[in-house]
Amino acid sequence: MNRCLIFALVFSCAAISYGQTPATSGADERRSALMRSYFSAFGSQGQSSIERLNALSLLPESFPTLALEEAINPDEYVLNAGDVLEVNIFGSVPITLRSMISPEGTLSLRTIGIFEAKGKSLTQLKKELERAVTRLYKASSLGLSLYQPRSFLVMVSGAVSQRGQHVATALDRVDKVFYLANAQDPPPPDAAQLAARRLYPETPPPLRASLRNITLRHRDGTTEPVDLIRYFMTGDRRFNPRLREGDVIEVPNLQPENMDLVGIDGAVQLPALYEYSRYDSLSTLYKIALGATKHADLEHVQITRWQNGQFERLTYNLADILAGKAPDVPLLPHDRVQVRLKSFARIGNVSVRGAVVYPGFFAIESQKTTLKEVIAMAGGFTPEAQLSAARIFRRPKSDEGVPLPANIPPDLDFIRQQLIRTGDLDAEEIANFNLEFGARRNYVSADFRAIFNNQSPDIVLEDGDLIIVPRDAGTVYVFGQVANPGYIKYVPGRTYKEYIALAGGETNESTGDIRILKAGSYEWKFPHETAVESGDWIFVPKKFQKTFAQQMAEITPVVSIISTLATLALLIFQVFRQP
């Protein structure tokens, strides 16, 4: 949901009183309640918007005073009944006069005269006063300023908690009175409303004031659109106009079941769904979303639109629109805008550790740079590199395909259950699968010796890969039923029997069934299947001493089978002996 709307509402709520009145904690609570009510219409995305803006510290505390948004423009400010003016006459004897414009629209200044002020700007009235003062006070100059703006009543109707008239000044905009109309709890129901609730106990729908489709109706019958979100996010004051005497502010109620929305996603600061306004355009929605991120492709912005019973996808050059080189594009209800990222090579990192000339991190183009290229960046292997035990470790990925940080392990039990549930495995196969899954690691299948001897294809790397090249210690490890198990210096061409002899020879408990565990792959090999290499392990197993019960358990089935066969043979013999 719209992550920006809250900021607009809160900002408008904070600046509501012209007379520098401190905001109370009660007003803050009402303001928060109003926001929660508004954004609940947008579902779960509305709550995420509140959390997002809280994280960005965009929910300001209430302001103790009101600062004017700008100095008053004397050419634009139109005077009317109730304005208090200050006149300063600078001469040999300075004179300061203050006077309020009467309900008839006239300004009365002692010793100077009465002037028609209604409907005139400060500049126009100043010129009239200068002519009069020049006649009365020779060689004098005059200053005219607005000492206090007039106040008047404005009507607020619709989805607000306090419908009716509210006090505003000529400097106020719609947002101030809008908040005033929501700053208090609704009045208690009268007798007629209580009776109606007893007869019709259905709960009335909650009030959720629209922030983008407010109408300001003037006394002369003209109207102006009010879009508080657009005003605060783009600074377009046309959509938060100043108030006049007799204005009526009409606030629609949001209806989630049939609310029109527009959305923007992709490479923008605040991608979200937004309440639709009939004045929305492509550039407007882009600005409401606080503009693009660093690598946004503004030349190929796509609008997805449901029209004539089918989806249409339209592409526009938003960069030209923002520069004024192309006309803006009006949006329709339920349009979705997609701002794509520019196409560029994704730079990743891999780490190389161990027996290379320059270990460390190296930049790669993910899914393009190869193992050979990275080893070349690292200066190649050192003489003591043990390629048979070299490994590439690939970090597990999240559901979005992004490598998980090293300190966040994947949920292996969940992955295992996901794999088993769709398989047709018996109990023995499941047990074997659990064993293999528990021993698995996120290795990339790579035979470094074959790859760097051009006997196997090169490996394409991904962002986050870890390449480990262990140093060859030049030893063979002999363990099991030998007199002195441990590491023995590797000598090329030496047989497994020689290594066992150097380890003190086999003990009496040895079965003689020697196995060799290959370095790196940990394959179990018989001695006749492989030569001993540096880093290999030689395992001398122990005889298994069976108990009497175990021996009987093995013999009993054999004896039973023999007895059965003997009995069967005897029966056959007896049958064929009969005459």
TrEMBL record:
| GO MF | polysaccharide transmembrane transporter activity
Q: Which Gene3D superfamilies match?
A: Outer membrane lipoprotein wza domain like
Q: Where is the signal peptide, in residue numbers?
A: 1-19
The residues covered by the Polysaccharide export protein N-terminal domain are: 73-137
So where does this one cross the membrane? 555-576
Annotated Soluble ligand binding domain ranges read 350-400, 476-511
One Pfam family name is SLBB
InterPro entries attached to this UniProt entry: Poly_export, Poly_export_N, Soluble_ligand-bd
Does the UniProt entry include the keyword rRNA-binding?
no
Highest taxon of source: Bacteria
Alphabetically sorted, this entry's keywords are: Membrane, Signal, Transmembrane, Transmembrane helix
Query: PANTHER family from the entry?
Result: POLYSACCHARIDE EXPORT PROTEIN GFCE-RELATED
Instruction: Name it.
Output: Sugar transporter
Q: Which organism is it from?
A: Candidatus Thermochlorobacter aerophilus
